[in-house]
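Dear support,

I submitted the protein below through the web form. The confirmation email said the job was done, but the results page showed an empty box. After a refresh the structure appeared. I'm attaching both so you can tell me whether what I see now is the final result or a partial one.
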Amino acid sequence: MRRVLKVSLASALAAVAITVVGVPTAAHAQYGSGQQQQGRPGQTGRPDQQQREPGEQSDAPRAPRIAPLSRRAAAGPCPYVKVLYDAARYVELTGDRVAAANVGFTGEIEGLVSDCSYQSDQPITVEARILFNFGRGPQAQGDGRTYRYWIAVTERNRAILAKEYFDLPVNFDGDQTATITQDQTIVIPRAEATTSGDHFEILVGFDVTPQMAEFNRSGSRFRVNAGTPAATPPPAQ
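What the results page shows now:
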């Protein structure tokens, strides 16, 4: 079923309405690794040094697994579209120490591409494609989890104009990992024709707890299926 989510909020500063319309498209697949973020523009960033526990993710380059969007005509620059580093990963941990054996459900925003279109005094329409990777660690209970993420529109480096939350049900179907791609459309009316796209910034992130945000800020990382046993190779013939 096609699902459309819509919210309209007013900015007290710019006196414009922000509408977020989400039409998700989902496809499940099993990946051993994800991809580095790509597209125009958008980066998660990372600390210069990271300490890893056994089972944590390496920084080795990975092949892109997100399809590009069709190019659109725009009268000026597009809004900046980024993944917020503090909310780029979702890692459930149990126990009193950070270890692969204590990992429950996990998620990571692995890719983000975007483009925009606007002419004259028309609203700015931003098309964004988000690639999520999910995993089940040894402490995960059940075969499914509903994750939550958000999209926020801000005046660049200033106030938040609108923020919308999206629930993302994931069924692992007995597997340890799952991948979902979602397409989102963000419509930003402009106060006047001279307001260009780079006046705005669009941020994407998981709905995380303060503890999860601190874990992300520390630079610690786990594979999406951290703590699960590796596949046993077939015996030699």
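Response: this is the final, complete result; the empty box was a page-load delay. The first helix runs from residue 210 to 217.
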